[in-house]
Design a protein that fits this description.
Elements: H1 9-13, H2 22-26, H3 30-61, H4 67-81, H5 89-108, H6 113-122, H7 124-145, H8 149-174, H9 178-205, H10 210-220, H11 224-234, H12 236-250, H13 253-271, H14 284-287, H15 291-303, H16 309-332, H17 336-341, H18 344-367
Length: 371
């Protein structure tokens, strides 16, 4: 999910009292700390909101383009013309991560629990196949291109599971260097944008039904944000279906991160760099995407009849607005210099994995009768 990370508030919250003495702060009114936090986030909000408003209007006037896709594209255009200043980063980062999670929870208010279970279990053959293709391809293509070690692993995990969130979780247990993390993030971001632009027209060219496209987007596009942008551009039914598939796919971050932690600990023991029985430190609180739980609870509430049709419509529109805000922030976060510094081999590995996963998803859908 640039996307979706479970540990979001601490970095922004640090703006409230930068460098102050805790003893001094203890005597201050709580409102002053909140005011400083708001001032720290305001520059980022001031950039995100106009871009999101323009994207909303484009989506209203040109539905075939859609607000979500417009938001990320307009954000990138602004970032290319004038990169966001450092003062705006906290606000932009907070919106990019938090708004999408809130949007997904709101989307859950329009779905039934039965549809979650049916869609999630029905997507498993395709989801597991694309995950295997991503991880196997990272090893095979990585060796062929000379991209090995943590960088190949991070690109493979990011492509196969959930983009930036998976990279962040995997890097925490691998102890990956900042350069490998930056390269893999840049690679994943680039092909997220390509998918948002290319998947909808390819889907129309292939004559894909809404659910078929939703399954393709949910299993083949990297970050949750880009899945949402591409699928909702194709249609609301494709969007709802893709969100369920993608969230089911995101839960794979748990077993994969555990496996990487155990693999790293085993390598350390063999190398004699850690005591016997030691394991890589793994914080489940940081790894588990908690917003998925609230998404399910929202669906349970809807199944129980908590939300009226009018409330469902209003919550759906609020969810769409949050999606557009999040994608505008993600577009504004584009770091073109970092992408240019990535080098051709990691980018080529990302391209090969992106194409392999997308093709594998289509083939598996055809074989299982879903296409």
């Amino acid at each position: 999910m640039s996307t979706v990370d479970a540990d979001l508030v601490p970095a922004a919250a640090s703006l409230a009292v930068p460098g102050d003495d805790p003893q001094v702060d203890a005597g201050r009114a709580p409102g002053r700390g909140l005011g400083r936090l708001a001032l720290g986030l305001a520059p980022g909000f001031g950039l995100v909101v106009p871009v999101a408003a323009a994207a909303w209007e484009v989506g209203r006037l040109v539905p075939v383009v859609g607000g979500p896709a417009s938001a990320i594209i307009l954000g990138m255009v602004v970032a290319a013309v004038r990169p966001a200043p450092a003062a705006a980063r906290p606000g932009i980062d907070l919106v990019a991560k938090q708004a999408l999670q809130v949007a997904i929870v709101l989307l859950g208010t329009g779905l039934s629990l039965a549809s979650l279970v049916r869609t999630g279990t029905g997507s498993l053959p395709v989801m597991l196949g694309t995950l295997a293709a991503a991880l196997g391809g990272a090893w095979l293509f990585g060796r062929a291109l000379g991209v090995r070690g943590d960088l190949a692993t991070l690109i493979g995990v990011g492509t196969g599971v959930c983009g930036g969130s998976a990279i962040a979780a995997a890097s925490s247990v691998l102890g990956a260097g900042e350069l490998d993390i930056a390269y893999s993030m840049s690679t994943i971001f680039l092909f997220n944008v390509v998918a948002v632009l290319l998947y909808p027209p390819i889907g129309h060219l292939l004559g894909m039904a809404q659910h078929a496209f939703g399954l393709w987007a949910g299993t083949a596009i990297n970050d949750t944000s880009s899945v949402v942008a591409a699928a909702y551009t194709y249609g609301p039914a494709a969007g709802s279906y893709a969100v369920i598939v993608k969230l089911t796919r995101s839960t794979a971050i748990l077993p994969i991160t555990l496996a990487l932690a155990l693999w790293r600990a085993r390598g350390q023991r063999r190398a004699g760099t850690s005591p016997a029985g030691a394991t890589a430190q793994l914080s489940w609180r940081r790894v588990f995407p908690w917003f998925i739980l609230f998404f399910v609870l929202a669906s349970v509430a809807n199944t129980a009849g908590v939300f009226s049709p009018t409330a469902q419509h209003d919550l759906s529109q609020a969810g769409l607005l949050m999606i557009i805000l999040a994608l505008a922030a993600i577009g504004l976060s584009a770091r073109f210099g970092a992408m240019l510094r990535t080098g051709h081999r990691p980018l080529l590995l990302g391209l090969l994995l992106w194409a392999t996963v997308g093709t594998t998803s289509l083939v598996l859908q055809h074989l299982t009768g879903k296409l």
